C-alpha cells in the first residue's frame, strides 16, 4: 500500500516537476493603479495565467487587488491586510519605490515572499523584477543612428514630470545622444504617456522647431499623438519610435503600406505581471533566485510588424505572457 | 472705450494670452504664427467646453464645484465610441449617447447632493469613482477608433478656423446668452451672491442647482466625445488633465471663485492662455520644474491683476 502510494507520488512528481510543493500556497497581487490600457492588459494577463495555474494545481489561489487612489499609504495598508490574511507571497507593482518599504519589511518578517515588478521597491528583502528604463531610452537613439548615420535634430517626448520612470528613460535618451553626437535634441515636451496630451504638447512646440526634425524619441503611449500633430501641421513625417500600442502599430502599418515608412517599437509587455507570478512561485518552491532580475524588452521591428499587429487586440497593447520556463530562463540568466 | 475694456475682468486673460503668443512668435518667426494660432484655437476649445460647465457650477457660490468632469469625459468618450464601433452612419447616435450619458451623470451627481445631503465636492468625487469604474468595466481600456467622418470633422477646419474651435465658440455664445439674457442666468448669479436671499426672493434654488449640475456634466460629455474623436479614440486617463484645467480657466477668466459673478469671454481668453503658456515655455526649452513654477506664478499674477482692477471702479 505504502509503496503504491509512493509510486503514485513519484509519477505525479515526474509529470509536474518542481510544482507539487506550492499546491497549497496562496499568492496575492497588490497593484497600485488600473486606469490605463497597459494596466488593464497587465491585470488580464495575470487573471489568465494564474487562473490556469490554479486550475492545474500549481498554487491554491492568486487573487489580484488594486487600490483606488494610486496612493502609497493606501497600498501599504493593503499589503498589511494581505499579511493578516496569511498569503504566502505578495507580488507588488508599487506606487512608490520607497514609501512601501515599511509594509514590505513587515511582510518579509512574517515570512512572506515579496516580489516587486515594474514599480519596484528598494527594501532589500524583496525581490525586484526591474525594467532597464535607461537602456530603453538609449536603444532608441542607437536605432536612429543606424537609420540616419548623418544624424540631425530630434524631438523628445517625455512622460509625466516628477515620476522616476520619466527621469530614467530621458537620462537614457540623453546618454544615447552623447554616444551618437551627430544627433541633437531640438525640443522636449511632456506627453504624460497619453496620446491626446502628447498630441497637444507636440502641436504647441512644432511651430518653434526647425523644419528638419528627423526623429522623435518617445516613452510609450505617445507615438500616435505625435504622428497626428506632425500630420496636422503639414510637416514631413520624421521617424517616430513607437511604444507597442495597437493604434501606433496600425498607423505604422498604414504608413508602411502607403509610403514604405520604417520605424521600430519598444516597450515592456504588460504580461510582466505573470513573470513576477512565476518568480514568486519559484521562490516558494525553494529555488535559489537572485534578488534582482531584469525584464526583457518587447521590441517590434519592421519585419515583425504584421505578426505583432495581428496578435494585439484592437485598441490594446502588444503583450506576451510568460511561462514557468521563461521565468526559469530569466532566473538562470541573472544567476550567471 | 479703451478705459472700459481695460477694467473688464476678462481683459487680463486675453492680454496674457496675447503676450504668450507674441513671446513664442518672437522665437518661431512669423511663419510659425499661423500654425501656433490654429493649434491654440483647437486645443483651447476642449478646455472651453469643460470650463463653461464648471463656471456655471462655481457661480453658485462656495462649496459648489464639479469634480466628476474627468470621469464623465472618459465615460462618455468610451461608451459612445464603443457604441459607434467605428462604423459610418452611427455618428448621430454616438453624439446622442454621449449627451445622454452626460445627462445621466449630472442627474446622478445632483441626486447624491440633494437626496443624501452630501456636500457637492464629496458627491461629485465619489460619483466620479463610479463613472470611471463603469468606463473601465465596459471596455477595459481598449481604444476604439471613431468613425472616419467624425475623425475628419473634429480635426478639420472650416473657413480657416478649426471645427473644434467653432464648437467652442458656439458653446460660449450659448452660455453668454444663457447667463446674461435669461432668467436662469439671473437666478444663478443671485444664488451665488446670497443663497438665502435668493430663496426668500422666490428663486427656485434647488431647481437651478439641478439644472446647473446637469449642464456641467453634459458639457463634460460633449468635450469627452469631441476629444476622443479628435485624438483617435478614448483612453481611460483622457480626462485627467481637465479637472484642474476647468477650474483654472474659470478663475483666470475673471469669474469670481467665491461665486455670484461669471464671465464667459474670459473662459476663452484663459483657455488660449493655458495652451500658449505651455507652448511658450516649451519653445524656450525650459525644464518641467521651471515651467510649472512659472505657470503658477503667472496665474497668480493674472488673478491678482484682474481682481485688483475690479475693486477700483
UniProtKB/TrEMBL annotation, chain A:
<feature type="domain" description="Periplasmic binding protein">
    <location>
        <begin position="27"/>
        <end position="287"/>
    </location>
</feature>
<keyword id="KW-0732">Signal</keyword>
<protein>
    <submittedName>
        <fullName>ABC transporter substrate-binding protein</fullName>
    </submittedName>
</protein>
<dbReference type="GO" id="GO:0030246">
    <property type="term" value="F:carbohydrate binding"/>
</dbReference>
<dbReference type="Pfam" id="PF13407">
    <property type="entry name" value="Peripla_BP_4"/>
</dbReference>
<comment type="similarity">
    <text>Belongs to the bacterial solute-binding protein 2 family.</text>
</comment>
<feature type="signal peptide">
    <location>
        <begin position="1"/>
        <end position="20"/>
    </location>
</feature>
<dbReference type="GO" id="GO:0030313">
    <property type="term" value="C:cell envelope"/>
</dbReference>
<dbReference type="InterPro" id="IPR028082">
    <property type="entry name" value="Peripla_BP_I"/>
</dbReference>
<dbReference type="InterPro" id="IPR025997">
    <property type="entry name" value="SBP_2_dom"/>
</dbReference>
From TrEMBL, chain B:
<keyword id="KW-0472">Membrane</keyword>
<feature type="transmembrane region" description="Helical">
    <location>
        <begin position="266"/>
        <end position="285"/>
    </location>
</feature>
<feature type="transmembrane region" description="Helical">
    <location>
        <begin position="210"/>
        <end position="230"/>
    </location>
</feature>
<feature type="transmembrane region" description="Helical">
    <location>
        <begin position="292"/>
        <end position="311"/>
    </location>
</feature>
<dbReference type="GO" id="GO:0022857">
    <property type="term" value="F:transmembrane transporter activity"/>
</dbReference>
<keyword id="KW-1133">Transmembrane helix</keyword>
<dbReference type="Pfam" id="PF02653">
    <property type="entry name" value="BPD_transp_2"/>
</dbReference>
<protein>
    <submittedName>
        <fullName>ABC transporter permease</fullName>
    </submittedName>
</protein>
<dbReference type="GO" id="GO:0005886">
    <property type="term" value="C:plasma membrane"/>
</dbReference>
<feature type="transmembrane region" description="Helical">
    <location>
        <begin position="118"/>
        <end position="138"/>
    </location>
</feature>
<keyword id="KW-1003">Cell membrane</keyword>
<dbReference type="InterPro" id="IPR001851">
    <property type="entry name" value="ABC_transp_permease"/>
</dbReference>
<keyword id="KW-0812">Transmembrane</keyword>
<feature type="transmembrane region" description="Helical">
    <location>
        <begin position="159"/>
        <end position="179"/>
    </location>
</feature>
<feature type="transmembrane region" description="Helical">
    <location>
        <begin position="92"/>
        <end position="112"/>
    </location>
</feature>
<feature type="transmembrane region" description="Helical">
    <location>
        <begin position="32"/>
        <end position="52"/>
    </location>
</feature>
<feature type="transmembrane region" description="Helical">
    <location>
        <begin position="242"/>
        <end position="260"/>
    </location>
</feature>
